[in-house]
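Tutorial, part two.
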Amino acid sequence: MKDREKMMTEIQQWMSRNHLPDDMKIVIIEKVGQKLEENKDVHVENLLPILSRKDRRFIKRLLCMDALKKVPMLQYMDESVLNKICDNLKPVFYTENSYVIRAGEPLDLMLFNTEGIIWTYTTDGSVKSGSSITKYLSKGDFYGKELLSWASSNKSFSDLPISAQNVKCHTKVEAFSLMAKDLKAVVSKFRWHISKDLPNLNRNNAHQLEKLALSSQRSPRLNRSDKYIKRNSSPQLTIDEGGENSLELGYQRLYPVVFPRSDAS
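Running the prediction step on this input gives:
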């Protein structure tokens, strides 16, 4: 077991680096102290197992929610969907120079980086030219958006997308992974919120957006009758000269479940 003082210093640094609120810091310190008094091991790199389910969920959402909202297909998702995805994230750790996935392998996870540097790169297969396309993934970045398209299309696990890139850790990396099986389960539960063909907000596809919003409202759990729906027809959206911004605001007002406002509490 690491020296207690050194361990507590590392834990304090991890909590500060990830901007944990003071009340959560107190909870973690108390839990660590309790485990040490019981002569049980505490892994500084992964403190989640010693916390309650409620606290684990809080930390995962704190560390990963902003990264989830960077994923194009999730930008307009209801908060309940994003929370459920966060709940299914698993902490993963990689050593320096280790591979997360190699080009040509099945892409069976999405990765959300919370600490360290990751390289993604492709090569043209030419030994002579040696040309490549390299991208840098730092804290708050993600990889594997293709898996969300796969999960939304009812394809089987034998049809997993193939990674077109090598994903390699330049430094020690702390991250959260979302496995294909867990993502598929979430998508199946919230299918009416997710469309792989979610269009951009503009004047030319307003009809598509309205259909998507209506289908979201008609969740199976609402159990509305056809008669009720006819009596309570959906509100109409008027598109004025305000263009894209007005259209987005209009959908936020009419369909807050699908298009939650960014300034909502």
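Residues 68 and 198 are 16 Å apart (CA to CA). In part three we will examine how such features are distributed along the chain.
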